[in-house]
Amino acid sequence: MKKDLCVENNYKHEIWMKNMKGEMFMKRSVAVLGGGNGGHTLAADLSLAGHEVRLFEMEKFSHAMQHVFTTKRIECLGEVVKGTAEIAMVTSDIDQALKG
Asked: Does residue 38 belong to any structural domain of this protein?
């Protein structure tokens, strides 16, 4: 998303952005708890929509998504959503994921 589409309100610490339809929305910081198929999809969708995403996965399952831990990216190859989602934080520490 281009910087010139962002409007920052320093008083309330909110960032408003324009989506592809030209509608304004508030950028959110979101923690997605769980890195299974649903967690990957939600994290990618929110990231591609312009939100900051922190993705948590339990240590015992983290090996299954090691590539995401390393790159902090999720590749979307579907018919509806395509692109590379940048994930702000990928962690197995739930406190870190929730606090940001």
From this structure: yes
H/E segment holding residue 99: helix 94-99
pLDDT tens-digit series, residues 61-89: 999 999 999 999 999 998 888 899 999 99
- Number of domains forming the structure of the chain: 1
CATH number of the domain that 47 lies in? Answer: 3.40.50.720
Owner of token pair 């339990």: 58
Three-class secondary structure assignment of 41-82: HHHHHHHHCCCEEEEECCHHHHHHHHHHHHHCEEEEECCCCE
Q: Are 19 and 49 in contact (CB under 8 A)?
A: yes
* Biggest CA-to-CA distance, the chain: 42
Give the Cα separation of 78 and 72 in Å (integer). 19
For residue 77 the two structure tokens come to: 């190859």
Look at residue 12 and tell me if it is in a domain. Answer: no
Please tell me whether residue 40 adopts helix, strand or coil conformation: helix
pTM for this prediction: 0.75
